[in-house]
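Workshop exercise sheet. Pairs work together: one partner reads the sequence aloud, the other fills in the structure field after running the prediction. Swap roles for the next sheet.
Pair: D.N. / O.F.
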Amino acid sequence: MRLNQNILLMGKKVALVPYTSQHVPRYHEWMKSEELQRLTASEPLTLEQEYAMQRSWREDVDKCTFIVLDAEKWQAQPGTTEESCMAGDVNLFLTDLGDPSLGEIEVMIAEPDCRRKGFGTEAVLMMMSYGVTKLGLTKFEAKIGQGNEPSIQMFHKLHFEQVAVSSVFQEVTLRLTMTEPERQWLVEQTSHVEEKPYRDG
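Structure field:
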């Protein structure tokens, strides 16, 4: 999605930056992990396929992707590369043609050292805020593998409720509707987030 290609979102623990070609080699290394392939229901791609995927994600109007950076590490000293601070990614899919107000959200904290630090929680909150304010979303869904208990628990803490279980795909679907109280809660949770212009590299 080109809408977010020049936007940097700065939180307390994480920074969200657009997924660019400079991030592809590290992302490609992550996705060689059988654990991550299982948790994300992904197939391994060649490096060339990964570059093509990155380009399609930038161009497609129904996908919004940010790379999650370790904000403290990234800001620690000038000249620190984004690639060395990459923690994971967070995505929104706007694929329900009958309901443009619905976004499917997913997050992956790929770096083991970055897990269980609240990175995924803040990244999801920041992405939901972006979806509500910039994309006009009022409903979010998360589809998570039944065995991914940490992710299921995280979304429950973010007020998502389980609405379906698929034994075929071995996944649960959780949903959050942005009522006025939920919107107010989201504003409070993300009041510290700064939006800044992003410069590739």
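Discussion prompt: The mean pLDDT is 92. What would you look at next?
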